Amino acid sequence: MKIIIDAFGGDNAPTEVIKATLLALFSDKDLEIVLVGKEEEIKAELKGKGYDEKRLQIVNATEIIDCNEAPVEAIRTKKDSSLVVAIEKLKQDNQIVGLISAGSTGALLSGAVLKIGRIKGVNRPALAPILPTQTGGSVMLTDCGANMDCKPINLAQFALMGSLYMEKIMGIQNPKVALLNVGVEDAKGNELVKQALPLLKKLPINFVGNMEACDLLSGKYDVVVSDGFSGNVLLKGTEGAIKILMKLVKGSIKSSFTSKIGGLLIKKPLKNTLKKFDQSKLGGSPFLGVKQLVVKAHGSSKAAEFYSTIQQLKKLASSNINQTIEQELEKIDFTEFEVVNGN
Asked: CB of 115 within 8 A of CB of 87?
């Protein structure tokens, strides 16, 4: 199996990307990896590491797309960027099963849609991160930023693709799908969710109704469906709240001698609790609906998370998830969905 990685995407590139690459190659003798980026810097990082050069290819790319750049413009003008070169290589080489990048989310999505295209029947691809829950399981949030403005048909397709992912990749039988809303009652919400609700009820999925934001990590749901704007706000708000809470807990433990003693007593159970929310083991966020496999790693990913994302991509490639999505979409008549959208 061969995968390609944007070696200069993310805050810790290329060092952490290369650490994860070497670990993945050492652990899987059948894996081949293509690293794209500034060749001399990559070779300098690899020097003396004793890797199998036959299974690690370096493709030179002199430019880097910054997260502050306009995504479409960057894709069109920075043709020798690590991201664009990686996407072109993925498109041209049939042996490469998928791409990983921790770079600009907008540029990655724009490049994937413009240069690779969508799965037949998919109106819009969705960015779908996998998050840990308090029960030790996981939940997918789709969409969380790829589509700021959505129509009901988009949410319906996000729900179907998310359900298939959690079943085929995460091994969850009959995954519970919920619609993000301001209340659990059917009558709640804006026009988008009110129109999407009856459509989701008609899909061949285990749709369980509306969900309030406070239950995202509760473990009660396996897939949470949202437009990209609301999903992104929910995701970042949740991540921010967890970080602040952790800082407050650590600060309280260190605040006095007595609290330090208490901290030692609760160290083990606290550590076990925090393990449940260790996202590094879950990998990145797949772009559901793109013709070829594309996974967005978190921008601040360290080697452990990059390694998990490589394992995630390998699993995706072995599952034929894209073919499954296309087949399931073909079974559904979306005519009435489009009527609801006013098309």
From this structure: yes
Could you give the percent of the chain with pLDDT greater than 90?
71
| Cβ-based neighbours of 7, under 8 Å, separated by 6 or more | 13, 14, 17, 18, 35, 36, 37, 42, 82
In the three-class reduction of DSSP (H, G, I as helix; E, B as strand; rest coil), residue 96 is classed as strand
Cα–Cα distance measured from residue 296 to residue 294, given in angstroms and rounded to the nearest whole number: 7
Domains of the chain: 128-279+321-343 (3.40.718.10)
Give me 92's structure tokens: 């041209």
Confidence of residue 343 (pLDDT cuts 50, 70, 90): very low
Q: Give 205's pLDDT tier (boundaries 50, 70, 90).
A: very high
CA 167 – CA 243 distance, rounded (Å): 30
Whether 137 contacts 181, CB under 8 Å: no
Q: Write the DSSP symbol of residue 55.
A: G
3-class secondary-structure state, position 14: coil
Q: Residue 260 in contact with residue 200, Cβ under 8 Å?
A: no
Long-range Cβ contact pairs of 271-278 (< 8 A, separation 24 or more): 274/246, 276/132, 276/133, 276/134, 276/135, 276/136, 277/132, 277/134, 277/217, 277/242, 278/132
Q: How many CB atoms lie within 10 A of CB 186?
A: 15
- Note whether 146 and 109 are within 8 A (CB): yes
Render 62-95 in DSSP notation, one character per residue: -B---TTS-HHHHHHH-TTBHHHHHHHHHHH-TT
Query: Which are the contacts of 131, defined by CB distance < 8 A and separation ≥ 6?
Result: 138, 139, 140, 141, 216, 217, 235, 238, 279, 282
Treating both helix axes as pointing N-terminal to C-terminal, what angle do 228-253 and 257-265 enclose, rounded to 10 degrees?
Answer: 120
Amino acid present at 18: I
User: How far, in Å, are 162, 172, 228, 333 from residue 326 at the CA level?
Assistant: 13, 20, 22, 13
Cα-flanking dihedrals φ and ψ of residue 131, to 5°? -115, 145
- pTM (predicted TM-score): 0.87
